[in-house]
Amino acid sequence: MPRISKEQMQSLLKLYFIMGSNNCRIEPELVLQQAIEGGISIFQFREKGTDSMAGEEKYQFAKQLKSICISQKIPFIVNDDIELALALDADGVHIGQDDGSVKEVRKRIGDKILGVSTHNLEEVHSAIADGADYLGIGPIYTTTTKEDAKKAQGTTLIKELRRIGIEIPIVGIGGITSENAAPVIENGGNGVAVISEISLADHPLENTRRLLNTINDSFI
Ligand SMILES: Cc1ncc(COP(=O)(O)OP(=O)(O)O)c(N)n1
Ligand SMILES: Cc1nc(C(=O)O)sc1CCOP(=O)(O)O
Ligand SMILES: [Mg+2]
């Protein structure tokens, strides 16, 4: 399989759902199934933080979620854990600035999808040069989901990157809901990434549909 094209990546980023066991109030499998039914375009397995799984338990859980994604043709991305992504033959990985060398990870995963978190122009240029397929930019708004999240930055960086002609696919992340997703798209994002808006919803299916409607309306 060749590297994913810019156009394919842009469309996959439209509604990016991220989740681990500690993000859910009900069975994670059920949340994921509802999110898929509601229209997510890509899924990231992010098992970290308080009470998160490790070892064989984490592997089996990831395998289960991957099989749900595969059966519904939703790409399955692994956060941070390159070994796990390779062991599961995941569709890709997402890494941040503290998760090792982008160049090294690109070498290890071959043509799989590679997402990189960036917070400024220097990180953006390096990530692109080192082989990122897309950028995660955040936190757009205040979030309590990520324990070590930086200060909210709004859509300033996304807007600036588009202004200077950077075309790499971008997803905004952090504190995004159906009420505040529109500016991310209006300022040049190709999609939004969410955890709690879907994972903690009373009705994950409804929240997913609502988010997707907001995103679709914002592209016009
Ligand atoms: C799509 C997307 N964007 C950003 C992140 C954050 O990655 P990182 O900064 O490495 O933080 P952790 O998620 O590992 O805590 C992401 N996971 N996904
Ligand atoms: C995983 C993650 N990364 C962020 C970043 O800023 O890079 S913010 C974040 C948490 C997103 O969760 P929620 O949608 O519940 O706010
Ligand atoms: Mg990380």
From TrEMBL:
CDD domains: TMP_TenI (cd00564). Keywords: Magnesium, Metal-binding, Thiamine biosynthesis, Transferase. Belongs to the thiamine-phosphate synthase family. Binds 1 Mg(2+) ion per subunit. Pathway: Cofactor biosynthesis; thiamine diphosphate biosynthesis; thiamine phosphate from 4-amino-2-methyl-5-diphosphomethylpyrimidine and 4-methyl-5-(2-phosphoethyl)-thiazole: step 1/1. Its EC number is 2.5.1.3. Mg(2+) binds at D80, D99. This is Thiamine-phosphate synthase. Its cofactor is Mg(2+). It comes from Metabacillus niabensis. InterPro entries: Aldolase_TIM, ThiamineP_synth_sf, ThiamineP_synth_TenI, TMP_synthase. It is an enzyme of class 2 (transferase). Condenses 4-methyl-5-(beta-hydroxyethyl)thiazole monophosphate (THZ-P) and 2-methyl-4-amino-5-hydroxymethyl pyrimidine pyrophosphate (HMP-PP) to form thiamine monophosphate (TMP). GO terms for molecular function: thiamine-phosphate diphosphorylase activity.
